[in-house]
Give the backbone structure.
Amino acid sequence: MKTLWLWLTVGLIFLAGCAQTTPAQPAQPANPASTVGGSATSASTVAQTQTPLPGPVIPTATPVITQSKGKFTVQLFSNADVEVNAATYTITGRAPVETVISCNKQISVVGKNQTFNFSVPLSQGPNLIEVVASDPSGDEVSFEITVTNTAQ
């Protein structure tokens, strides 16, 4: 059953993350909300906070971005909406063991150290980086980061 879950999750994440690094488009929330009578409503309960998880410390110059769904929590330590002069950008984060993480076309399963990182190639100009995390129970959270490569 666990193997079936892993193959299904990897397949779905692969299909969902097939897009290469592309020029940035307006960011969509992880769970789009609709406006009804001037107030936002949402069909899901995904929370975004700035609370650190216990475990090894990963250095960061900016606050940590955290997404949670129930007891499933994933953190990113990489800057969002940033400009760089580089050919690649490193995405680092923390998630529970056995979480399947996809970052654009790359897929990884989180090990015992509960950390992950991806080196993402950048095109010149704005690049959209999508990170999707899924746990064995089927809970899923996602992040969208825009990195603008100013290299000429």
